[in-house]
TrEMBL record:
Keywords of the record: Hydrolase, Metal-binding, Metalloprotease, Protease, Signal, Zinc
Protein name from the UniProt record: M48 family metalloprotease
Pfam family membership, one: Peptidase_M48
Cofactor note (record): Binds 1 zinc ion per subunit.
GO MF annotation terms: metal ion binding; metalloendopeptidase activity
Length: 285
């Protein structure tokens, strides 16, 4: 004889399904309550706090250690001293608590690239010398990358990515509870693409522009000609093999970027001249 009452498993299923969106919502609320807003060096409001400063610095240290293990480190002492000199001159312009302890690595890599990480780490590829043809242009690269760190861009990006994943989890739970797991999986896939194209990448372009602003200020204060940032990006553009569409790029449109750098360089010329008059005259190479 079959019972007319639903089985215990069937009775619990709607309840469990109902808990999924509630749990996701609580997770999202917990994330948002843990985050905070701050103001970037250019006055932009940022949402940060996805992880603590200590965790962020540890993440940067681990990433740098991994880069040193996976990439060949240059044995060219002169080039290494050159990069170290430029990094030191730029970081001396930071607030006192951020000036010391910056570690530098020069990697043997033809890709003209560089990066800076929380925890005071700077990595430069030897390929950068193809486009940064003097110390002022190298300073533009280094100051731009350090600008990302002091503008809390890594914190901001991680916080937004955590929020995006949590938000997608909430959306997937809501769809799954109504239309089933296949629909939830599709929502996650499509939502992930939408977040990548419509949320994370535009923020990256904003950060790149902000790092240009902060970096150009830094190099001028350190005694480097801010106009050389313009020449650097012209060299970068000439050396590139093509650019993706701006709406799918993590970098601003190259022509617009160069125009902005040029306009800003004119306004920063007095800062540069004052720095030179005050004795900040780098002689790195």
């Amino acid at each position: 004889m079959h019972s007319t009452n639903p089985s215990p498993d069937r009775a619990r299923a709607p309840v469990a399904a109902g808990w999924r969106p509630l749990a996701a919502g609580l997770a999202l609320a917990a994330l948002l309550s843990a985050c905070a807003t701050t103001t970037s060096p250019t006055g932009r409001t940022q949402v940060v706090g996805g992880m603590s400063d200590a965790q962020l610095q540890q993440l940067g240290i681990q990433a740098f250690d991994q880069a040193k293990k996976s990439k060949k480190i240059s044995t060219n002492a002169a080039q290494t001293r050159y990069v170290r000199c430029v990094v030191d001159s730029i970081t001396r312009e930071l607030p006192a608590q951020q000036q010391s302890g910056w570690e530098v690595a020069l990697f043997v890599d033809d890709e003209p690239n560089a990066f800076a990480l929380p925890g005071g780490k700077v990595g430069v590829n030897t390929g950068i010398f193809k486009v940064a043809r003097n110390q002022d242009q190298l300073a533009a690269v280094v100051a731009h990358e350090v600008g990302h760190v002091i503008s809390n861009h890594h914190d901001e990006r991680i916080t937004r990515q955590i929020g995006a994943r949590t938000g997608l989890g909430l959306l997937g739970a809501l769809v799954g509870s109504r239309y089933g797991q296949n629909a939830a999986n599709t929502t996650g896939q499509l939502g992930g693409a939408a977040v990548q194209a419509g949320l994370l990448l535009p923020n990256n372009r904003t950060q790149e522009t902000e790092a240009d602003v902060v970096g150009q200020r830094l190099m001028a204060r350190a005694g480097y000609d801010p106009h050389q940032a313009v020449d650097l990006w012209k060299n970068m553009l000439a050396a590139s093999s093509g650019q993706p569409p701006e709406w799918l790029s993590t970098h601003p449109n190259p022509a617009s970027r160069i125009q902005e750098l040029d306009r800003r360089a004119d306004s920063l010329a007095p800062v540069w001249q004052q720095a030179r008059a005050g004795g900040r005259q780098p002689r790195c190479g």
